[in-house]
Amino acid sequence: MTWLWVLVVVLVVLGTGLAISEASLTRMTRVRALALVEDKRRNAVTLERIEADPPRYLNAVYLSVMFCQNGSAILVAILAERSYGGWGVTLVSVVFTLLYFVVVEAMAKTFGVLHSDRAALAVSPLVWFLGRALAAPTRALIGLANVLLPGRGLKEGPFVSEADLRAMAEAGHEEGSIEREEKELIHSIFEFGDTIVREVMVPRPDIAAIEDDKCRRSCSSTGTRGSRSSARTWTMWLAWSSRRTC
């Protein structure tokens, strides 16, 4: 019986890690993952691979979560029935469900949201392994769900990818549901979202500052020693300091 309790603890710990994975990865973007790769963070390359195909890995996480939740609940019910009988199963199951919600659903997911970068980097090797190991089962189960559901279904499960949204925008434009400008706006949003900040902004590592109690003559003197690219900045400083005299 002791080994069953050990197995319950293992499933709860694994479920906690999976809850952190789910919360952190759903907040992560590929652009952010690429930035972490450039910063040479540990496991950043693995995280970027996951973000290149999120449905594949998140579906594996969801399936693993179901195994952990149901498996631990069944084991607790078996142990309670052996120790306390019929009413014990009900009481222990209710208490276990409440504790599981607090520890796994509330605490773990909150941690994943608050520390999404650190959490996503930490769990990325586990998520990558699950995505590889459970690729075939998740694909088969999603295919079965699409057969049972009426309509077209979703190839990758309950996810709408960027390609799907772009295709819907094109279809909507062809059917006359949206204007050409609206279609182009949707495409430009995705293109902008994939842009790294340093690609559109000029770095300014060297700046000159003026104390807020300086007069106009001091501002002018400092501005004339600056580069031409800062001329507009000095203009604003001079306008601000025009009320001061030396």
SSE string, helix = H, strand = E? Answer: HHHHHHHHHHH
Radius of gyration: 28 Å
Span from first to last CA?
Answer: 86 Å
Which descriptor suits the 3D outline? extended
Oligomer: single chain
Q: Percent range for helical residues? A: over 70%
The secondary-structure class comes to mainly alpha
Low-confidence stretches: 228-232
Largest sheet descriptor: none
How many domains? The number is 3
Can you give the mean pLDDT?
Answer: 78
Count of beta strands: 0
Q: What percent strand?
A: under 5%
Short descriptors:
mainly alpha, 246 residues, 3 domains
Strand and helix layout:
Elements: H1 2-27, H2 30-38, H3 44-52, H4 54-84, H5 86-114, H6 116-133, H7 135-148, H8 162-175, H9 180-193, H10 216-224, H11 231-241
Helix pairs in contact: 1-4, 1-5, 1-6, 2-3, 3-6, 4-5, 4-6, 5-6, 8-9, 10-11
Structure characterization notes:
With 246 residues, the protein is mainly alpha-helical. It has three domains: 2-148, no CATH class; 162-197, no CATH class; 203-246, no CATH class. It has helices at 2-27, 30-38, 44-52, 54-84, 86-114, 116-133, 135-148, 162-175, 180-193, 216-224, 231-241. Helix 1 (2-27) packs antiparallel against helix 4, helix 4 (54-84) packs across helix 6 and helix 8 packs antiparallel against helix 9 (180-193). The longest helix is centred in the N-terminal third of the chain and has 31 residues, at 54-84. The radius of gyration is 28 Å and the shape is extended. The relative contact order is 0.10. Mean pLDDT is 78; it is low at 228-232.
